[in-house]
Amino acid sequence: MGNLLGNEKFEIEADGVKIMVSEHTVQDQQVYRLIFDDERAALVITRAATWQGNLWTSLPQGRQKEAEFFGQIVSGYLDRR
Question: Cβ distance 67 to 58 under 8 Å?
């Protein structure tokens, strides 16, 4: 679990793209900033609890498909550590 003094950083790969992930805590909410080694903009994601269950969402909203896709990969990494 990240904190303000020592956020965890790790690298994942998806579809041939390397992604540096840093974990942050913002007002007791875990968020993950993804920096891609291709030309796309960085993505910030978090898990949100909804009436349908937990899902990954982007901050700010608008990149939902990416958030869901990369959120599953981040989840897999977190489950294995």
Answer: yes
**Per-residue model confidence as pLDDT tens digits over 5-61:** 457 899 999 989 999 999 999 888 899 999 999 989 999 999 988 888 889 999 999
Cα–Cα distance for residue pair 23/33, rounded to 1 Å: 7
pTM for the full model? 0.85
Where residue 62 falls (left for φ over 0; alpha for ψ -120 to 50; beta otherwise) is left
Q: How many residues does the chain have?
A: 81
Spatial CB neighbours of 21, under 8 Å, sequence gap ≥ 6: 9, 10, 11, 12, 32, 33, 34, 35, 74, 77
CA contacts within 13 A on the Cβ side of 21? 22
Q: What is the dihedral of CA 16, 13, 41, 34, to 10 degrees?
A: 180
